[in-house]
Amino acid sequence: MLIVAIVAGAALAGSQLASALPYSTASAYRVQRQPRAGSCHARGRGLYALPDPHCTPGALDPAVRQATIYSTICRSGWTSAVRPPEWVSEPEKYASLRAYGDGSAVWRFEYDHLVPLELGGAANDPRNLWPELDWAQPHGYYNHNPKDELEYELRNMVCDGEMRLAAAQHLIATNWVAAWRRYG
Fold first, then answer.
1. What is the pLDDT, as a whole number, of residue 106?
2. Most buried among 2, 56, 90, 138, using CB within 10 Å?
3. Residue 144 to residues 18, 48, 147, 181, Cα–Cα distance (Å)
4. pLDDT band for position 134 (50/70/90)?
5. Is the pLDDT assigned to residue 17 strictly greater than 90?
6. What is the pLDDT of residues 99-117, one digit of tens each?
7. How far apart (Å, rounded) are the C-alpha atoms in residues 20 and 51?
8. What does 126-164 look like in DSSP terms, one character per residue?
9. So where are the chain's domains?
C-alpha cells in the first residue's frame, strides 16, 4: 500500500508524530477533573462530529510505543486490561457532557477515547476523552460507528506492520473523519 507507506513514513517521522501528543500520567482508578461546563465545543454534529481540539487534543499511554506494540495493543485482551472501571468513567462522562454543553439524554452518548485504547490512547486522561454520540437506533437497531471501524482498521495496519503507531495516532487525533474517508 503505497499511500500507507507515504503517510506512515514520509509525512513525519514516528518520533515527531508521537511527540505532538502528550503522554498521560492519569490514573485509571481515580475520577479525573474535566473541563469546566460549557467550555468545549464539538466541530460538526452527529455521526461525524469531531471533539474540540482545545479540550480533547488526545493523549497517549506511555506503556505503548512502537517497540512495545506486540506486548500491548497487538495482544488480545489489552484494552480490557487498561480500561477504567465504570465507577470512574461514569461520573467523568456526565462532567464531560456538561463541558461540551450537552445535558440531553445521556444514554445517547458514549465516553469515547479520541486516540483509542487499541492505538495506545490514554485510558483515563480528560485530554483523550469526550462525549461521542452513540449510534444506537430506535427499536434495537444498531448502526456501525465509523470511528470504531477506523480504529479497528488502523490497529490492524499497525499490528501488521503496514503503518507506524505514531502515524495512526496522529491521523485519528487530528481528524478521524478525514482518516476514515481514506482508510475506513
1. 79
2. 56
3. 29, 12, 9, 15
4. confident
5. no
6. 998 766 777 788 999 999 9
7. 17
8. GGGEEEEEP-B-GGG-BPPPHHHHHHHHHHHHHHTTSS-
9. 2-183
Residue with cell 462532567: 95
Taking the mean position of all CA atoms in its chain, how far away is CA 108?
Answer: 18
Cα distance between residue 58 and residue 61, in whole Å: 10
111: three-class secondary structure by DSSP? strand
According to DSSP, the residues that pair with 65 across neighbouring strands are: none
If we measure between CA atoms, which residue out of 45, 66, 43, 68 comes closest to residue 54? 43
What does the block give as the cell for 80? Answer: 480490557
Residue with cell 482518516: 179
For residue 114, give the C-alpha cell. 479520541
Residue type, 68: T
